[in-house]
């Protein structure tokens, strides 16, 4: 069966199968073989891909896999097949403005019930020394403001919910 | 070692600079005390200090800005001196005054010097009156009614700056004069909000300028020396990313000129303790930009080339000693480069990142120095500055130093919070950087350095992730090898 890993906002579908020398990675039309991973101490190991060895440092935190290979660090998220499915169902007529980065609300510029047009400023947020404006993705009516001035939020948090007009 | 009139020093700071100051205090056999906010309870500086006193505030930053609590902590720990580090209260004249009035030595300049140099317009006028070069500018205070007209007459592009500015706040670049009034309004509101002071001035914006600064040291006996220059031209959004000493591609005559100007400015201001005179360099000319009346983030590159521990000298000066060397004793040797590791994602517009440090491993080697303020298990939040650690290398030549820092940035392992480490490695290996052709617009002009090369090594990372994820391996192991070898049909 297919498994999904998210990396830098892109979903990659892949699956593994066994082969004599270890595993085979099926990634789109690409098949990598053979591959294997041997653990070396805590959080480290050797990945062998088609005869080449790569030293890997890793940390696993829930569904998140942090990897350091060849001087690069990347964060991959394993998408549980069941969870990934439920995310597709979307509440029709509601739009959300998500936090592009963690930060603090400096100012809210709208109130629930306000009529807004695409591009209008909803909220001013600050992440350390960077101030940015959260803008409406399209026309609508402000449904809910999830954080008040001075409150902090994490990356991806829903900041403002907007009702599409006509709903 | 000369005797100091105090045996305990309070550090009114956090992070890597607090750790760095504690190291020198230990070297000088002095005791260290530190104030900390609850969020920093697990930070290395707090466990390293001999004494740690909690402070609180409406926000975490506010705790480190609370003069009353800090002075109360200093009394509680019976310290004889307070080192403010950089940022927070380091350039707050009121704080320095309150410390001195409490009978505690302030490890820094006099409150008068902080006040003079803290106001960018006053500092600029002072420097000009003393015969040193400054940039042509329009100052609002001179005549508010004609401010915009005078600014326009300088011609685009312009840079709007806050008189009380710092750290890139209250600054706007104006390329189209039609947007000048908007930029003034934005800069003013930002300056008002961050510094409580909306006064502005405007100068010509030079796209390809270099930022060169000179480290100075003065004592209470009128001696002032320089510790040579640092080049800090590699910047993003007015924030330094990579610094080095000495500056490359400048002539010995230029070096002498800029260093002597810095000493002249410090001497005119009766400057005491460590300070940095920053200059804009355009072609073969330099202009005074500002003076930072404190220890700077990038001071280690100067320490590496001169062999002088600047924090130790700060403590001796604060303890009333005369400088331990004269100008001719200070020799620059080799080349040093510092790279700042930030909790930020360069490929997403340098947006700050957060997370828990799950794995932290620093490389080690000759000539390599790591000034770090974090440890494994620590939570990185947006409550403070994103600086996590500085990687500093001292080598015989600039190219060798660049290569070593690049390697260190790639060997360094920090898992759990995204950093700019691989971005720094890309910059350090870039042809233009290696040729020394850097200016403050360099990173903006080379977006390929900022963009992540998403495609490379992708399958390697996905393979490692797949092999480390139990359900993925389990579903492979559940299928007998014979069936699996039939291929992708089960993929339905």
From TrEMBL, chain A:
Pfam families linked: Biotin_lipoyl
Keyword Transferase belongs to the record: no
Domain Lipoyl-binding, residue spans: 89-163
Protein name: Lipoyl-binding domain-containing protein
InterPro entries named in the record: Biotin_carboxylase_complex, Biotin_lipoyl, Single_hybrid_motif
Superkingdom: Bacteria
Annotated SUPFAM superfamilies: Single hybrid motif
Species in which this protein is naturally found: Rhizobium leguminosarum
Keywords: Biotin
Automatic annotation (TrEMBL), chain B:
Keywords for the protein's UniProt record, in alphabetical order: ATP-binding, Biotin, Ligase, Nucleotide-binding, Plasmid
SUPFAM superfamilies: Glutathione synthetase ATP-binding domain-like, PreATP-grasp domain, Rudiment single hybrid motif
Domain (Biotin carboxylation) ranges: 5-448
Residue ranges of domain ATP-grasp in the record: 124-319
PROSITE patterns in UniProt: ATP_GRASP (PS50975), BC (PS50979), CPSASE_2 (PS00867)
One MF term in the entry's GO annotations: ATP binding
InterPro entries in UniProt: ATP-grasp, BC-like_N, Biotin_carboxylase_complex, Biotin_carboxylation_dom, Biotin_COase_C, CPAse_ATP-bd, PreATP-grasp_dom_sf, Rudment_hybrid_motif
Domain of life: Bacteria
Pfam annotation, one family: Biotin_carb_C
Name of the protein described by the UniProt record: Biotin carboxylase
Species per Swiss-Prot/TrEMBL record: Rhizobium leguminosarum
């Amino acid at each position: 069966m297919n498994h999904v890993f998210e990396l830098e906002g892109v979903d990659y579908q892949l699956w593994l199968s066994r082969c004599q020398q270890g595993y085979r990675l099926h990634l789109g039309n690409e098949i990598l073989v053979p591959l294997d991973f041997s653990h070396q101490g805590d959080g480290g190991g050797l990945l062998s891909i088609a005869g080449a060895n790569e030293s890997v440092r890793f940390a696993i935190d829930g569904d998140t896999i942090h990897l350091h290979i060849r001087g690069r660090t990347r964060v991959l998220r394993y998408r549980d097949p069941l969870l990934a499915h439920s995310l597709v169902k979307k509440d029709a007529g509601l739009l959300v403005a998500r936090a592009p980065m963690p930060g603090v609300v400096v100012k809210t510029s709208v109130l629930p019930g306000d009529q807004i047009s695409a591009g209008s400023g909803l909220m001013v947020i600050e992440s350390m020394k960077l101030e940015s404006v959260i803008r409406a993705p399209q026309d609508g009516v402000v449904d809910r403001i999830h954080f008040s001035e001075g409150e902090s939020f994490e990356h991806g948090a829903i900041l403002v919910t907007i009702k599409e007009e006509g709903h | 070692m000369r005797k100091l009139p105090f045996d305990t020093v309070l550090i009114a700071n956090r992070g890597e600079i607090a750790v760095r100051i504690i190291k020198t205090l230990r070297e000088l056999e002095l005791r260290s005390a530190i104030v900390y906010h609850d969020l920093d309870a697990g930070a290395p500086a707090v466990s390293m200090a001999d004494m740690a006193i909690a402070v609180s505030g409406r926000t975490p930053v506010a705790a480190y800005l609370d003069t009353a609590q800090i002075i109360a902590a200093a009394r509680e720990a019976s310290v004889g001196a307070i080192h403010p580090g950089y940022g927070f209260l380091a350039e707050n004249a009121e704080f320095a005054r309150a410390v001195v009035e409490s009978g505690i030595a302030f490890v820094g300049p006099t409150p008068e010097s902080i006040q003079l140099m803290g106001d960018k317009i006053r500092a600029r006028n002072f420097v000009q009156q003393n015969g040193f070069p400054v940039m042509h500018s329009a100052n609002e205070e001179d005549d508010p009614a004609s401010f915009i007209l005078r600014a326009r007459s300088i011609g685009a592009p312009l840079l709007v700056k806050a008189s009380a500015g710092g750290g890139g706040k209250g600054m706007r670049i104006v390329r189209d004069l039609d947007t000048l009034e908007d930029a003034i309004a934005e800069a003013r509101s930002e300056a008002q909000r961050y510094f409580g002071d909306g006064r502005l001035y405007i100068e010509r914006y030079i796209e390809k300028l270099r930022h060169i600064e000179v480290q100075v040291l003065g004592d209470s006996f009128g001696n002032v020396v320089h510790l040579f220059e640092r080049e800090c031209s590699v910047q993003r959004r007015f924030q330094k990313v990579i610094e080095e000493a000495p500056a490359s591609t400048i002539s010995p005559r230029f070096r002498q000129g800029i260093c002597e100007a810095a000493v002249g400015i410090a001497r005119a201001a009766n400057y005491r303790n460590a300070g940095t005179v920053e200059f804009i360099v355009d072609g073969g000319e330099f202009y005074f930009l500002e003076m930072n009346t404190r220890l700077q983030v990038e001071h280690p590159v100067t320490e590496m080339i001169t062999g002088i521990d600047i924090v130790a000298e700060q403590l001796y000066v604060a303890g009333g000693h005369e400088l331990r060397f004269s100008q001719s004793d200070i020799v620059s040797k080799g080349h040093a480069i510092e790279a700042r590791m930030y909790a930020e994602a360069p490929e997403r517009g340098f947006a700050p990142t957060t997370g828990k440090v799950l794995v932290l491993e620093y490389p080690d080697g000759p000539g390599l120095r790591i000034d770090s303020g974090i440890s494994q298990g620590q939570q990185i939040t947006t409550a403070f500055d994103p600086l996590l650690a500085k990687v500093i290398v001292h080598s015989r030549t600039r190219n060798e130093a660049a290569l070593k820092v690049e390697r260190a940035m790639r060997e360094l392992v920090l898992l759990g919070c995204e950093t700019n480490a691989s971005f720094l490695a890309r910059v350090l290996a870039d042809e233009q950087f290696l040729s020394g052709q850097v200016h403050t617009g360099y990173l903006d002009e080379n977006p390929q350095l900022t963009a992540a090369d998403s495609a490379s090594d992708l399958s390697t990372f996905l393979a490692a992730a797949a092999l480390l994820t139990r359900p993925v391996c389990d579903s492979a192991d559940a299928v007998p090898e014979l069936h699996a070898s039939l291929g992708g049909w089960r993929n339905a």
